[in-house]
Amino acid sequence: MTRIVSMAAIAAALSTPAFAGNLEEPVVESVPAPVTVVQTGTDWTGAYIGGQIGQLDADTSNGLSGDDVSYGIHAGYNYDFGQFVLGGELDYDATDTDLGGATVDSVARAKVKAGYDFGPVLAYVTGGVAQVDTSVGDETGEFYGIGMAYRVNDQWTVGGEILEHDFDDLGGSGISADATTVSLRASYRF
What we know:
Elements: H1 2-14, H2 17-20, E1 46-60, E2 65-80, E3 84-98, E4 103-117, E5 121-134, E6 138-151, E7 156-167, E8 177-189
C-alpha cells in the first residue's frame, strides 16, 4: 500500500503546472515582413546611336536671319554613377536655312553631357564645340543647352534638346551668328 501511495504522490507532483511546462502560452513564431525593392534609378550606362529632327533658327550680326528644318544623326556613350550620369556625344545636323544671301548647310557638334537619373527619365545639361558649314564658309564655335531622354524600354529612348550656338566669324567675313536648335530625338541603346 505504501507503494501505491508513493506512486500516487509522485504522479500528483508531476502533474502540477511546475512540471507540466508552460501550456497556457502557445509558441508563436514571427513571420518576417516582405521585402519591398524600390528602384530609384535606371542604368543609363552604354553606347547609343540615333537620329533627330528639329528646327534651326539663325541670326547674324549684319541683320540677316532665317529658320528651317534640320535633321541628323548622333552617337554617344553614357556612364551612370548612381543618380549622376556623365556622357559624350557626336552629332551632325543637315539643313538648308536661308539667311537672305547666305545659307546654313550643316552643323556638327562634339558634346559633353551631365545629367540626373530620375529612373526612366534622364535630364541633362550639355555643351561643347560646334562647326557650322555655310555658303560663306566654315566656322567653329561653342554651344550649350539642355535635354531630356525618356527610356521607352531597354533599347529605345526618345527625348528632346534645346541648344544655343555662338559663331564669331563666319568664313572670315567678320559676321558673327547665333543659332538656336530645337530637336526631337530617338536613340537605340546597345
